[in-house]
Automatic annotation (TrEMBL):
This is Amino acid transporter transmembrane domain-containing protein. It comes from Linum tenue. GO terms for cellular component: endomembrane system. Carrier protein involved in proton-driven auxin influx. Mediates the formation of auxin gradient from developing leaves (site of auxin biosynthesis) to tips by contributing to the loading of auxin in vascular tissues and facilitating acropetal (base to tip) auxin transport within inner tissues of the root apex, and basipetal (tip to base) auxin transport within outer tissues of the root apex. May be involved in lateral roots and nodules formation. The keyword Electron transport does not apply. The keyword Lyase does not apply. Residues 29-470 form the Amino acid transporter transmembrane domain. InterPro entries: AA_transpt_TM. One of its GO terms (biological process) is amino acid transport.
Amino acid sequence: MMIAENGYPRLHTLNISKDPLDDDGRPKRTGTMWTASAHIITAVIGSGVLSLAWAMAQLGWIAGPVVMILFSFVTYYTSTLLASCYRTGDPVTGKRNYTYMDAVKSSLGTLQGKLCGYVQQINLFGAAVGYTITTGVSMMAISHTNCIHRSGGSAAACSTDATPFIIAFGIIELVLSQIKGFGQLWWLSTVAATMSFTYSIIGLGLEIAKVAATRKVRGNLTGIRIGAAVTPIQKIRRVFQALGNIAFAYSYSIILIEIQDTIKSPPSEVETMKVANRFSVAVTTLFYMLCACFGYAAFGDSSPGNLLTATGLNPYWLLDVANVAVVLHLVGAYQVFSQPIFAFVEDQAARRFPDSRFVNKEIKIRLPGSGDKDTAGNRYYGLNMFRLVWRTGFVVVSTTISILVPFFNDIVGLLGAIGFWPLTVYFPIEMYIAGRKIVRWSGKWVLLKLLSMGCLMITVAAAAGSIAGIVDDLKASKGL
């Protein structure tokens, strides 16, 4: 990924300067249905897949697959609506919108565009926190697994505290966050995609191997049973939380417009994107169903919150490889999702304080390998004090929150809840209604509004379940 002029992610495409210009004067786009599908699948398949077996355990063999299929349908349908808003006016010749926020501004006005921007910023910050927790848990799992094998199978003497690993990850990101233009390293997306597929496929393979070894399918029709394990209230809370986990796993609307902006035309970007959406959601749903179902079949009611922290998956060294892949993926992913916030805040500060030396002055430090060059051709790093203080503060805050609330499933569920309704459902539906001038109280208008309201209720329930889970986990960690 690379960062666009307004600070939001934009996918890197290879453009040759000799190519003819596109309809907006920019270099001609080269993307196809296949490249768009690859971008979507790369964006969707990530750390969210690790919690699907746990989500299935809360819902059971009946509701679990049904809910996943419903989420895939809603995601596909609303993504198709969003794709139709890529151009303002005529879907073939209208003005192109380069980012999600641009599309919202064009369709719904500046106020809604700003609201979309705020929701995006919250989701991006939440992703930074979620990635920090996930990485800490994976690093802890590697240490814990190897400790058990060194001690001959005894887990009593092996630490299960993720805090040191979260701090270590925070220190790494503290350094990386100071690299100016880090988001413009186009290969970052390739590395992240490779790592995400690595740990996802390893996890699925280990699940299948465990089911084959035991020759037993665990689980039941209604999910984890009420009794000694969970109370009725906890069961309801966990079901709501599972909805948030599934929503998080399917979310990619935040970069859909950016993906569509890489597609060449003709044929129209909308038609190509519809096919890419259909293909990508189908592939993702199949993969997710396999991960969730085999994970639940392998572990039943005791399905782990994070698949790669499960005990009983062998060989353990392959599990370590998967967790290393998670760490490598999220080291880069943290920066990809944080750089837009960095760019947005720094741009706003520069506009508000144009004469401030603290905000705008750069101190040139000669540093081989840096991306900047002076007039003599020497490479240097431009140290900006505002950037140093602000980005350091951002990483410290996200790391501190991760230490205080290191609960993987609760955070993933909350992130899924926060982003699902506004970004995946509300804005696409409202933009479609405005762009197609759908008559108020007509049949289509009513159905779209009912879909939006239904998804809002799911979002509220998922958020409530995740927040309640965080509160319960905090009480348990403090012995209350």
